[in-house]
Specification:
The structure holds 2 protein chains of 2 kinds. By secondary structure, chain A is mainly alpha-helical. Chain A has 2 domains: 15-91, no CATH class; 99-348, MetI-like (MetI-like fold). Chain A has helices at residues 14-21, 24-54, 77-83, 101-130, 137-149, 152-162, 168-175, 187-214, 219-227, 232-260, 264-270, 279-287, 291-315, 335-348; strands at 60-61, 68-69, 86-87, 90-91. The two termini of chain A are 34 Å apart. Chain B has 2 domains: 13-75, no CATH class; 86-255, Orthogonal Bundle (MetI-like fold). Chain B has helices at residues 23-55, 75-81, 89-120, 126-137, 142-154, 164-187, 192-199, 204-233, 236-241, 249-254, 266-286, 288-295. Chain B starts with 22 loop residues before the first helix and ends in a 7-residue tail after the last helix. Classes of the chains: A mainly alpha, B mainly alpha. Chains A and B meet through helix 1, helix 2, helix 4, helix 5 and helix 6 of A and helix 1, helix 3, helix 4, helix 5 and helix 6 of B. Chain B: It holds the Pfam family BPD_transp_1. Chain B: It is a multi-pass membrane protein.
Chain lengths: 357, 302
């Protein structure tokens, strides 16, 4: 039934179908034209334009001649600037934006791996709990939606306050005998400050997505496993996990892409202190120091994200787009959940392609 | 179908602890369940609670660690709206409301067309278009900031009152979200009604407008809330493309300055954060059922 979501034709009496389908093609195209116009102007055109820009030189003083140059073709020099750390003829001196590329790259990967891992584990636990029968489920669901509804900028400021030197977090740590931490400036605490805020904000969402997957599992499967004497752990690994795998993978894909472009939290919470400058922050800092290098860097970020997305879809079992009925598919019959979670996971990006989280 | 979209759906017995089997196991299960539920509720509420408590706490007691409201005052809210230190929070609220409403209205209008086509019509290139829409939702916003920054600065949009510098990108970023959510909602509707209307001589457009649109209202409404929240919460583009005259709340809060440099006006910021968040939380709580089914739309169809 749900295949309709992606427009599978419903079976109608042949005669009627013919008359109703007439003109569908044209109407369909007409209806998506406005969407395509917006996406072209704001997404496709800038993407192409960024690539064009990235092959031009930034205006500035030419070191060899001492003259001001307007730009011109740069070849791959804007890319080698970041990837090979080349600033002109020499390697980039420490402290320049160029020299921060690998630090930003690795810290972004670190945020992604740690945050998403914690979110999967906690999200799974939350979802299993919420899938049980209990009174007050409306209250619990309302509570869990609150972190999601708070704007990331506010979340960042809230955790900036909670994690302040004199703040409540250090106070609570003091109660168990831990010395206060400089959460927003020391390298490791700063990284974990960002991870804590990110995990707080997005775990509930992961939990709701997994819960939606859990609710699809028919109860008789569990009853059968119980009769067969399966342990709690066996039930989890042999039944729950395989059955929620597809929606889980789609959710993980979207969360991964989301953290890879993390901007709001490090920009506001730590301002990049303690080596927490993410790739997105580096792009933003570079924009005012030279468009063309920034364009190259943003293209690099785009390529990294595209590769990760491709790997997930290719090898991770995150079937994101449901194929049209009748076309080839690897199909184990779980497409319903797939396309499903897609919509859900998209909504998780309430940052709208921005640097949310 | 869609039994699970109903918020009241009885949890399909993941309750593996059958009553009649092991009584001890059952009791342990109950304890674990309630410990888990307590963790979830504290997780969701504690930091937000701390924000609200601090918002009402006298600035002299900023770091008071009492878990209850103490030294209650409304001063922080006055400070938040005070413009004498160069903070324009009140104006920013207005800007965010304008941007949010226009973004939501246009994205919904454009999105409804596309979602209808996606869920109901067959046309050439449909799955390619679907791919483009999905792909653009995965797109790193930061990859667009550089070229858009140049484009908008050439157009002169980065000075003065130019809401469109934010509204147009917001619409584009909100469209994938709008279309996917709406498509999932539309797919669940009783389309037999539409077919009967068309047999009675309505055009597809009329059948949609007169018959289906009223039925789709809850779905439309939920989607609109999601889009509005997305626009309201956006920070990256707002921090780059908004000017003094179009600054949004997220930017205003992030750059809130206190009486002295290097002294963070925590309590005023928490007051501002409360003002920005509480309407959203109320909206989310009131429409909780719809939002949860909207968030997981499609994922819950049986």
């Amino acid at each position: 039934m749900s295949a309709v979501a992606q427009g599978a034709p419903q079976t109608k009496p042949p005669k009627l179908r013919k008359s109703l389908n007439a003109g569908q093609g044209r109407l369909g195209l007409l209806l998506v034209v406005p969407t395509l116009v917006f996406l072209t102007v704001i997404i496709i055109y800038p993407l192409v334009w960024a690539i064009v820009l990235s092959f031009q030189k930034d205006a500035g003083l030419d070191k060899a001649t001492g003259l001001f140059v307007e730009g011109g073709s740069a070849g791959f020099s804007n890319y080698t600037h970041w990837l090979l750390q080349r600033c002109g003829e020499t390697s980039c001196p420490p402290g320049t934006l160029g020299s921060q590329f690998y630090s930003a790259f690795w810290v972004t990967i670190f945020f992604t791996v740690v945050s998403v891992t914690i979110e999967i584990i906690l999200g799974m636990w939350f979802a299993i709990i919420m899938n049980k029968d209990f009174k007050g489920r409306a209250l619990v669901r309302a509570a869990i939606l609150i972190p999601w509804a708070i704007p990331t900028a506010v979340t960042a400021k809230l955790f900036y306050f909670i994690l302040a030197y004199d703040g409540i977090a250090n106070h609570l740590l003091g109660l168990v005998g831990i010395d206060p931490l400089l959460w927003t400036s020391d390298p490791w605490p700063a990284k974990f400050a960002i991870i804590i805020a990110d995990v707080w904000k997005t775990t509930p969402f992961m939990a709701l997505l997994i819960l939606a997957g859990l609710q699809l599992i028919p109860s008789d499967v569990y009853e059968a496993s119980q009769i067969d004497g399966a342990s709690r752990w066996q039930t989890f690994t042999k039944i729950t996990l395989p059955l929620v795998k597809v929606p889980l993978m789609v959710a993980v894909l979207f969360r991964t892409l989301d953290v890879l472009r993390i901007y709001d939290l490090p920009a506001i919470l730590t301002g990049g202190a303690g080596g927490t400058t993410s790739l997105s922050m580096l792009v933003i800092k570079q924009i005012r120091a030279g468009f063309h290098s920034a364009a190259a860097l943003s293209t690099i970020v785009f390529i990294i994200i595209a590769i990760v997305a491709w790997l997930f879809i290719q090898f991770g079992g995150a079937e994101v787009i449901q194929r049209p009925p009748g076309s080839k598919k690897k199909g184990k019959g779980d497409d319903d959940t797939t396309q499903a979670t897609t919509a859900a996971a998209m909504v998780s990006n309430t940052s709208m392609g921005g640097g949310g989280a | 179908m869609s039994a699970t979209t109903a918020p009241t759906s009885s949890a399909p017995a993941a309750e593996t602890t059958g009553q009649e089997i092991h009584h001890d196991r059952n009791r342990w299960g109950q304890i674990r369940l309630y410990v888990g539920l307590a963790v979830i509720v504290v997780w969701g509420l504690a930091p937000a609670y701390w924000m609200v408590v601090t918002a009402f706490r006298d600035v002299g007691y900023t770091f008071d660690t009492s878990p209850w409201p103490t030294h209650v005052t409304l001063d922080n809210f006055r400070t938040a709206f005070d413009t004498s230190r160069g903070n324009h929070f009140g104006a920013a609220l207005w800007h965010s409301i304008v941007i949010g409403i226009v973004t939501t209205a246009v994205a919904m209008l454009v999105g409804v067309f596309a979602a209808y086509a996606m869920s109901r019509l067959n046309f050439p290139g449909k799955f390619i278009i679907l791919g483009v829409i999905l792909g653009s939702s995965m797109f790193p916003g930061v990859a667009l900031v550089t070229p858009l920054f140049q484009l908008f600065s050439n157009l002169g949009w980065l000075q003065g009152v130019n809401y469109q510098a934010l509204i147009i990108p917001y619409i584009s970023f909100a469209l994938p979200l709008t279309i996917y959510t709406l498509t999932a909602f539309l797919a669940e509707m009783p389309w037999e009604l539409e077919e009967s209307a068309r047999i009675d001589g309505c055009t597809p457009g009329q059948a949609f407008r007169k018959i289906m649109l009223p039925l789709a209202a809850p779905g439309l409404f939920t989607t609109a809330i999601l889009v509005f929240i997305a626009s309201w919460n956006e920070f990256l583009l707002a921090s780059q493309f908004s000017t003094k005259y179009t600054q949004t709340v997220t930017v205003a809060i992030a750059s809130f300055t206190g009486a002295q440099p290097h002294q963070e006006p925590y309590t005023a910021i928490m007051a501002a954060g409360t003002i920005v968040t509480v309407p959203l939380i109320i909206m989310v709580l009131v429409f909780q059922r719809w939002i949860v089914s909207g968030l997981t739309a499609g994922g819950v169809k049986g």
